[in-house]
Specification:
mainly beta; Immunoglobulin-like; three-stranded antiparallel beta sheet; 7 strands; globular; Trp_RNA-bd_attenuator_dom; Trp_RNA-bd_attenuator-like_dom; transcription regulation; RNA-binding
C-alpha cells in the first residue's frame, strides 16, 4: 500500500465565472476522475487521496496551499 499523505489540502477561490477544478487519478495511467465548476467568489477545499494525485485548474483563480499562494495568469 502507498504511503499517501491525506493531510494535504488546497483551497481554490474563483476570480471569474466558470473556473474548472479537475482531479487527476493516481496509478500507471493518469486520468481525469472528477470536475467541479466554480463561479466567481466560490471556494473549493480539496484533499489529496488514494485516488487523487494532482489537480488541474482552468480559469482565473487563487490557489492556497501549505507552500504558499498562487494566482493563475489566464
Amino acid at each position: 500500500m502507498e504511503n499517501t499523505n491525506h493531510d494535504d489540502y488546497i483551497v481554490v477561490k474563483a476570480k471569474e465565472q466558470g473556473v474548472q477544478v479537475i482531479g487527476l487519478t493516481r496509478g500507471q495511467d493518469t486520468r481525469f476522475h472528477h470536475t467541479e465548476k466554480l463561479d466567481k467568489g466560490e471556494i473549493l477545499i480539496a484533499q489529496f487521496t488514494d485516488h487523487t494525485s494532482a489537480v488541474k485548474i482552468r480559469g482565473k483563480a487563487r490557489v492556497m496551499t501549505k507552500h504558499g499562494i498562487i494566482d493563475t495568469d489566464e
